[in-house]
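Entry 14. Structure prediction run on the chain below.
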Amino acid sequence: MKRYFMLIPEACILVLQAGAMGKGGEVFVLDMGKPIKIVDLAREMIKLSGYEPDKDIAIVFTGIRPGEKLFEEILTVEEETVATQNKKIFEAKLSEVNKSLLEEKLGKLKFLMEKGDKENIKQELKSAASLFYVSK
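Output returned:
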């Protein structure tokens, strides 16, 4: 698996910069470089702790859990970024939200909440995430 990482100071700067640059509703993305293999991170952390990977500390592969991906995507193919005054921060140009579908899903969630139907609320939230965006 590969993941992008950001340091706490980088996250803080992103929030502060986004607050200063934002006019309302924008999504800002930090250039985090290339994704890092989780196994490489584990090996490096073991070495930095003074141990030897696979000798002193075993690395166990447990497999992919439900909902996990091998590669993390910051944006979809349809979405693009535009440079800002900060060379490490980009503004994402997101796909449009399908407002009628959003209103429909919110109405269904409200109904399920009023019923106290926790199981169906979870299912509805899981199924809703990918339905809200339409291509440009």
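The mean pLDDT is 87.
Filed with the rest of this week's runs.
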